[in-house]
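Researcher: Let's run the pair from yesterday's discussion. Sequence first, then tokens, for each.
Model: Starting with the first of the pair.
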Amino acid sequence: MENQLEDNLNVNDVGENHTKKSFSFQQKILIGIASIVIISIIAIIILFSTSETNDEIINYGIGQIKCVYKIDQIINKTKILGDEFNNLNSIEIIFENKKISFDKEIQFKDIGKQEIIFIINKDYLNMDYIFKNVSSLISVEMISDKEINITSMISSFESCNNLLTVYLRGVNTNQVKSMQKLFYKSTSLYNVSLDGINTENLIDMSYMFSSTSFTELNLSNFNTENVQDLSYLFSNCSKLKLLYLDSFNTKKVLNMSNIFKLFLTIIN
């Protein structure tokens, strides 16, 4: 009788131990599944947040100025904006798909072509001296879904020695009164999109295309009825062969000195 009772107790102990072991195994499975679910949820949240941030960067702002710089050597700082550009509160800087702290100079980690996007966060922009003397700049493309009002363009691209192309789209320049030295001494510049340029209130065009590498310029869409200064406009354009000035009105011009200095062929 005692032996039988002892055997029953042993059997019960075994069953209880087995239940404990089974329960412990089930717990491990549940914990493992829960961990996987939690990790997956966190990964999805991070992915969504990253995607949302990137979308915000790409679509943020009124418009964008996409600039390409040619970096020949790694140095501490490379100038990306002109020293005299003061309209800093109107733009933000995007580099490698991230907003970076505002600075007129940046340290590039690699040589070759590097792209920086300047986000325009207001519907107006004073472009005076914005890229003056930025020697590493090779191309500029300004695009906007909503029209940006440019208020001034003095020396915007002056002395950008390696600048090749400039495209301005989605901009309104009817408030601009001066484009003095706009492309002056950008000696490599040969291609500019001027179709959307409004010059009806322009007063000063002196040195605008002087010392550039254009072979042809079509300014037939330019309204110059209010222009007073055309001095040195095409001076030292030694490569310029064709120039179209169909719409040029010079009745208010007060200064035309050396407008064609060292210029070769005029058509129309």
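Model: Moving on to the second of the pair.
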Amino acid sequence: MHIGVVSTHVAGGGAEDVAAKTIKLLIEEGHSVTLYTRDSVSVEDYRRFYGEELKCSIAVRKALFDAKLFPTRYRFLTNELWLKGSRDGVLLDLSPSIVPLYLRNPKLVYFHNVPKFDLSIANSGLMKLAFCPYNAFARYLVRKFVADEHIHMIANSRFTQARLARCHVKARVIYPPVDLDQWRRPMHHNQRRGIVSLARFAPQDPQKRHDWQLEIVRGRKDDLIAMGNCLNSSQEAHLSKLRENAPSNVRFVTNAPLETVRDILSRRKVFLHTAFEEPFGMSIVQSIAAGCIPLVHDSGGPREIVPMRELRFKTVSEAKIKLDQVLRGEYDHFMPALRDHIEGFSTKTFKDGMLREIFDAA
């Protein structure tokens, strides 16, 4: 069977990693795959991000309208991808756009967050008038999408599932895959030092809250290694501002190969995750497998990964107190339970669930 996979971007974060894992498992099952994306794919970059070759056909499609001229909510980000995918037996959207506007509904949608089902209309009188036809058509497409009972709706966490339910979208939960064997490292608590974080430096993702990380470690003897992808000029500008405000005990590591990321995680004591209402949090699972004690914001999907309230915080001041406790080893005893718990986020669990949904959709 030929399967089309839509992933707006190829590298960068958890959504792109899910697309890469899905493509890999489909090829392993003997299917041919076409990847529809807006990114020009570099073989070297793909190997650096995922540690292997991209073994599928690639169709690069740019946005229909210039982003500088049209706000994101007014662009048909995906229509061209869908229309060009008409020969595919099954079409999977693994990175739904900010507003789900489909001329041809996909067979399966994997939600990494909740799209905007209520369209915003320009405040300006002239702009409002100019976009009236667009908004009317867009609302029709959104209603058609939500009402389509044949689409297999998948959420990446119970948190995302609950948010979708508020929009009358019924979704099943299939957690993103983490190759736990590749990330596992001995714990050796007494040999580990310092703090580490892993989140892309994206200004459009303010919930990552890198600024909180800087405040949490400011004035401490323990150092923080802040890792993340930095792939374009806006992300570079954002990272530059973070560098300017960072204390001397913070070191930034960008676009590191997977093996470097794993090596750094294997040497660190604490994994600090400050994102607010993160839909899931694959990096948290990876850090636990690598032997780090996680300290995460008490919201969103991370609650499903880190069930212990002692390892979650709501404010910077609370995080500072708990960071001291984690560094002193007061919560080392949670590690066996955490490592058992993350078995539910394994590649095998994801593969079994996704293949079942894909074949049902076909």
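Researcher: Give me one sentence on the second I can quote.
Model: The mean pLDDT is 85.
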